From TrEMBL, chain A:
Gene name in the database record: hoxU
Superkingdom of the organism of origin: Bacteria
Protein name: NAD-reducing hydrogenase HoxS subunit gamma
UniProt family annotation: Belongs to the complex I 75 kDa subunit family.
Location within or outside the cell: Membrane
Organism in which the protein naturally occurs: Aquisphaera giovannonii
UniProt cross-references to InterPro entries, sorted A to Z: 2Fe-2S_ferredoxin-like_sf, 2Fe-2S_ferredoxin-type, 4Fe4S_Fe-S-bd, 4Fe4S_Fe_S_CS, NAD-red_Hydgase_HoxS_gsu, NADH_UbQ_OxRdtase_Gsu_4Fe4S-bd, PSI_iron-sulfur_center
Pfam families registered for this protein in UniProt: Fer2_4 (PF13510), Fer4_7 (PF12838), NADH-G_4Fe-4S_3 (PF10588)
GO cellular component, one term: membrane
Co-factor(s): [2Fe-2S] cluster; [4Fe-4S] cluster
Enzyme class: oxidoreductase
Domain 4Fe-4S ferredoxin-type as annotated: residue spans: 140-171, 184-213
UniProtKB/TrEMBL annotation, chain B:
Classification via Pfam families: Complex1_51K, NADH_4Fe-4S, SLBB
Organism of this sequence: Aquisphaera giovannonii
Claim: Cell membrane is one of the keywords in the record: no
Alphabetical list of InterPro entries matching this protein: NADH-UbQ_OxRdtase_51kDa_CS, Nuo51_FMN-bd, Nuo51_FMN-bd_sf, Nuop51_4Fe4S-bd, Nuop51_4Fe4S-bd_sf, Soluble_ligand-bd, Thioredoxin-like_sf
EC class (word): oxidoreductase
CDD domains: TRX_Fd_family (cd02980)
Its EC number(s): 1.12.1.3
Oxidoreductase as UniProt keyword: yes
UniProt-recorded name of the protein: NADP-reducing hydrogenase subunit HndC
Domain NADH-ubiquinone oxidoreductase 51kDa subunit iron-sulphur binding residue range list: 441-486
Any one GO MF annotation of this record: FMN binding
SMART domains linked: NADH_4Fe-4S (SM00928)
Family to which the UniProt record says this protein belongs: Belongs to the complex I 51 kDa subunit family.
Amino acid sequence: MATVKTLSIDGRMINAGGDQTVLEAAAEVGIAIPTLCHLDGVADVGACRLCLVEVGDPPRLLPACSTEVFEAMVVRTDTERLRGLRRMIVELLFAERNHVCAVCVANGHCELQDLAVRVGMDHVRFEYVHPGLPVDISHERFGVDHNRCVLCTRCVRVCDQIEGAHTWDVAFRGAGARVVTDMHQPWGTSQTCTSCGKCMQACPTGAIFRKGATVAEMERDRSILSFLVTAREKKQWNV
Amino acid sequence: MDLAELQEVADREAAASKAVRFRVCSAAGCLSSGALEVRSGLEDAVEREGLGENAQVCAVGCLRLCCEGPLVRVDPDGTLYERVAPDQAASIVATLKGGEPSARRGDADRPFFSLQRSIVLENSGTVEPERIESYIAAGGYRSLHEVVREMNPAEVVDLVTRSGLRGRGGAGYPTGLKWGMVAKNPGPHKFVVCNADEGDPGAFMDRTVLESDPHRVLEGMAIAAYAVGAEQGYIYVRGEYPLAIRRLETGIRQARRLGLLGTQIFESPFNFRVDLRIGAGAFVCGEETALIASIEGRRGVPRPRPPYPAASGLWGNPTLINNVETFANVPPIIRNGPEWFASIGTAKSKGTKVFALAGKVRHTGIVEVPMGTTLRTIVETMGGGAPDGGTIKAVQTGGPSGGCIPEDRLDTPVDYESLAQLGSIMGSGGMIVMDQGTNMVEIARFFIGFCMDESCGKCIPCRAGTVQLHRMLSRIIDGEAAEEDLEPLRALCEMVKAASLCGLGQSAPNPVLSTLRYFEDEYRQLLRPGAGAAAASAGR
Ligand SMILES: Cc1cc2nc3c(=O)[nH]c(=O)nc-3n(C[C@H](O)[C@H](O)[C@H](O)COP(=O)(O)O)c2cc1C
Ligand code: SF4
Ligand code: SF4
Ligand code: SF4
Ligand code: FES
Ligand code: FES
């Protein structure tokens, strides 16, 4: 099963375990592919499409996070075309909801912001939609601002696969899709939430925040999530 | 049940059948225009006139010219009556005694009918969909018998492969190849799934097949199950199809009672059980991984493939997913042999295709034609061209995943490759005709709007990209866009196509790209300076 495969990433020949993903194999040799929905320790869903890489010739676009390596695979992670796609994806996110960083608790500690810098997004070419979504601060310790949510579902997966509470889920579809707690009721009334804070640690943006945090204060301690990896390796949950 | 008993049912049915049959279309189209009342009118008249010895009234499936419903067809002379009103029923029965019908006679020999070639729909309009005996009398379940009693699974797969049948759900994947993969993939449990989600706007082929000949689909599924080694099947059908659901439920019950589904079918070790799963009618749930999630009781969203369902489908087991029409092709392929099937159609697209002909065309309804028939034959000769003296401008095939084909390309034969070359697809068979009055930019916006609403919202290119495409098209239509806005529109189309997770997003820009390809003029006209004011004064 996990026999070692030889492949090339960006022209470099590398070895990788047969059950490794392209993302993992690339990370091992220091090639960082941009990601947003990926979170070490929980199952990948291939949703954000930022990690798309070109495989083979003619190139096929595949998500690095959920594509396993195979023998003689030829991967390119940083072509002109990929840079264009990634930039457009980030722009679409900024246009979709309200990401005015200056007034966000996560300003300076936000993965979306980092991505924008990384893909060289200096302005947004799309029309801002700014839907004006609610902010739920009914929970005693945390809050969720749907205007900052990028629907990566990291909170959903962490809460389900690590905490085992399955408080979060996604409701509605298309542009109306939203993360919801329990049966779409205020978080504060949730019967399942254990207030463990994992979803808050997992959230890449200012969407889930600790109450009382002020602008640019929401630093995440991802090391808290390092136990996730341990848990994953021990296979302590079902995907 | 064995072959002799099957024959007995058929004989009994034949013996009970009367010389004259009034076949009343009882598919959804005609039912909605009053076929039920027509049927009871005919029954009353037959009884009143004392013709019961000689004549019978049958509730059959779709007679195809749905726009002229309710339709009645009379055997043995084949007379067709269109738009029959309940109070005209008696006069139709009176023709048996030499009377003149007050109902309108239709031309049963018009090209709409005569150019059709029926394989999938061979029973549609003759067999009574709610009576299994009627299907058995038409030769039904013979193919299943032959397969179960006389062939091994590998032979069945091989036979389907040699027929050249390709999936009718859209992508045209070789059916035999798919069956072979599911058969070969290891697993203690395997499943067969019939995809009856049919979410494309303007499409009603699968609904017609299910309402007109449900047993045909059940038989095809059972044959597939035997070939791949499955004991459980699901039909995933949208909740908006209550009649199809009811007839499938009836069909499953009848087949179980006769031992044609269930355990030890035809006294063999083969067991096969079929259950219905009713979808809430989301277009994305037709995508196979979303469909699987939905059957499993989860949110119907796609996941990256591989693994394909053939390797890891329902609850991680090898799963065969085929379209309604694909399964419906199987029993006649077994009956007549793969060479027979392969002799129909074109080099790479075998057999026939059922289309739902709709839009600006005189005869709307269901047509089944050999692959390779030209679009012009379908929409002009058979469909009768645009109504009210209009002329056809374009034909949209493949629904929201497809594209618009301009009038000057209508001589293209319908097969998977030719349509793809024109930037459209065969899709599942929706065919929407547009006349000169149609604004192609509006059409593009309509389809993007559909995909925008139906996007599952999981991946960003599709969820947010369709919203922006819709806005860009709206700005063009409102006359607020300029020349330099066309390039970003194209670029975003390409991005959504390339980066989306599933087929919905990957094909959503097709209607925009194909209208840009053939009708760029119409976009440019809207871009002219002052177009905004012109649109406003035209009240748009
Ligand atoms: C968004 C989307 C919707 C689809 N809807 C349908 C459908 O309604 N019916 C169908 O048979 N296939 C549909 N398909 C194709 C199926 O995913 C699948 O390819 C097909 O059912 C396979 O059957 P076939 O090989 O017999 O064509 C859809 C695909 C996508 C991406
Ligand atoms: S705080 Fe913990 S239990 Fe509550 S929603 Fe977040 S992850 Fe789930
Ligand atoms: S709330 Fe945060 S973690 Fe959850 S989906 Fe939104 S952005 Fe992702
Ligand atoms: S392409 Fe659209 S429908 Fe498909 S997964 Fe992405 S958001 Fe969902
Ligand atoms: S990180 Fe791979 S798709 Fe989001
Ligand atoms: S529904 Fe009656 S002819 Fe099609």
